Amino acid sequence: MQVLFYIKLSAVINENESFVVPHFLPYFGHLFQYMRDPLKFLLSCRQRYGSTFTLKVMGQRTTFVMDPRNWNAIIKNSNLSFPGTELATRAFGITPDALGHDEIDVQMRKDYPKGLQNDSLKELIAHFVQNIREEMIKDKQELKNTIKTCGLLDLCHLMIFVPSIRTIYGEIDVHSYEKSFEKFNSNIQLLFINVPSFIKSTFFQKTLNARDYLIQQLSNIEHVQNQSRMTKMRTDLMKMYPQYFSSSDIGGNHLAFLWASVGNTIPAAFWTLFHILRDCRALEQLQEEVRENLPVLKLDENIEFDENSWTVEKLAKCVLLESAVNETLRMYGAPMMLRTCSSNTQIQTYDGKTLSIRKNDRISLFPAASHYDERLFHEPFIYKFDRFLNNTIINNLELDRQKVPIAYMPFGTGKTMCPGKYFAKNEIKICLALIFQQIEYKFIDETTPKTRADRVGFGVAPPSKDVQIQYWYQ
Ligand code: HEM
């Protein structure tokens, strides 16, 4: 009788659990299907099993909630938290002792708007424009009126990597970081996976060496000139707690921030340029907008840089550019927002049902699910540069006549939402505007690259192959 009662009870609990997608491999579970093409796999699971389903990867159960009407309930649930400690330890080598201290996390999040928004944003933009101008002057001098053949992603890297890092970290020798960053960044997705450490050290040694080099370089930068307010605040905060942060933990934290700041911005600039430069109608309109709002930035080292030439206010007037960047982030900004469940939890869904999540299970919100939902975005697989003109669409997203305020979230949402989003968008706008003003180009490669499947879920996925162009200065 007792047994019967137990079986019945567990059936009731399971009824509210989401469907586990069948798999045949013990332990690895859905890993290989998922890794082949995560976006395609997840969208096909939604089509076959509905908007909530569970996958198992390396023994970890993860429930994917693909309907944005349920996202708010998940974000607000206090049993579900961002597994920051685990991810930061695996990917950035920060020791667990230096993570998960509420008083420090709260202070760091309070510092983000102080260091990245309002007046600090104005300062960051002025320095970024100055730094990008310097890099372009160097590049122009090296070219000496000749034509350069390179990848479009390489050009975006040239325009963003050094200028962005100098803007945030000051006068460090960024060029000495480049090779290691490339090695680390190209395989960082492997470090996020939960595998035993001996596997990591056997198979990912080069990536780990590159990471350790970067950590070491960034572990002692407090005396560097011209650092941003953000970096100073972060370093000061960590130095206040020597009992938690070793110098290597400080380096790991700076590396995490550095990766967050350039790891997504460079591929986002690439995809925006890739679509705009090949669309004459879009290009003409955007060039006109830049001509109207931004004065020509002279690439001549003898002319002093005027820091009021390109300001946040002038960039804000470039609404078509803003829309083009937002459209890129709709199509390519596909973060996987993970939450870990601290105890058995019941979530009320928008349609009055209950979703049960087991202790230690993960929940994943996948914004690409709504970014590619044709009920929210007409012809979602087509890049439309003016789709977000004046942002009206973001405020009016509806499903079944019900407003869905968080269906567009390339920068995440809730307390871990990207604090660098205004800086990131302005960096991309500046990069595009300067290319319109200063550079002539020709595509050698006419094919459209795919996104790197293994990077879907980690922010903006880069192309699987760079697109060759030729460019020269006007
Ligand atoms: C196109 C460029 C960018 C994209 C798409 C992007 C996207 C994101 C996303 C989705 C998250 C939230 C992750 C989550 O909640 O699970 C995030 C967090 C973060 N981003 Fe960005 N980001 C970009 C650029 C930047 C820049 C330029 C900076 C700094 C200058 C930055 C700094 C951060 C930081 C510090 C966090 C962690 C916030 C926290 O945990 O409280 N990001 N970003």
UniProtKB/TrEMBL annotation:
Keywords linked to the UniProt accession: Endoplasmic reticulum, Heme, Iron, Lipid metabolism, Membrane, Metal-binding, Monooxygenase, Oxidoreductase, Steroid metabolism
Protein name from the UniProt record: Cytochrome P450
GO cellular component assignments: endoplasmic reticulum membrane
Cited SUPFAM superfamilies: Cytochrome P450
Keyword Transcription: no
Annotated heme binding sites: C418
Organism the protein comes from: Didymodactylos carnosus
InterPro entries with a match to the protein in the record: CYP450_sterol_14alpha_dmase (IPR050529), Cyt_P450 (IPR001128), Cyt_P450_CS (IPR017972), Cyt_P450_CYP7A1-type (IPR024204), Cyt_P450_E_grp-IV (IPR002403), Cyt_P450_sf (IPR036396)
